[in-house]
Amino acid sequence: MVQALQSGNAQYLGSLVVGDEIEMDFSSLDVDGQIGEYLQFFSQFSGGNLAWKHWVVDGFFNQTQLRIRPRYLAAEGLAKAFSDDVVPDGVQKIVTKQGWLPPVNTASKTAVRIVRRNAFGEPRLSSAHHMPCSWQWRHE
Asked: What count of Cα atoms within 13 Å lies in the side-chain half-sphere of residue 60?
């Protein structure tokens, strides 16, 4: 980043704060580990892409890692729908425990856009009153 700033190639995209929604696309990434188990488990269900496309920033694990959680899943629903022996350990950890802790570089490869919503729940694409707006993490 320092080199990009010094050479004039750095570009400000936006800020990321707790509560932001991240839309992710894992199709171009070869995944394994916890997130691999998570994607494989939910891919077997109709509408499973909702389970992995929308995430919420829950915090910052450290300077280089995010803590994110699935937007449309909760531990209570997972416990009601499946017994513990059916749900893989990686899925349990992401949904019921610490969430997914991707390095920022990994998140930047999968994150398509950061979604900020208005009071009606609609994505805010622009604002005349300087409210935070949605932004693209990577340009396609």
From this structure: 8
Q: What is the mean pLDDT of residues 38-50?
A: 80
Vertex 103: Cα angle to 98 and 105 (nearest 5): 150
What are the tens digits of pLDDT across the range 69-90? 999 888 888 777 787 678 888 8
Q: How far is CA 127 from CA 72, 117, 130, 138, in A?
A: 26, 11, 6, 21
CA distances from residue 8 to 1, 2, 85, 105 in whole angstroms, order as listed: 10, 10, 53, 21
Judge contact between 66 and 114, C-beta under 8 A: no
Largest CA distance in the chain: 54
Least reliable range by pLDDT among 15-19, 27-31, 66-70:
27-31
Find all residues with CB under 8 Å of 45, minimum gap 6, and list them: 51
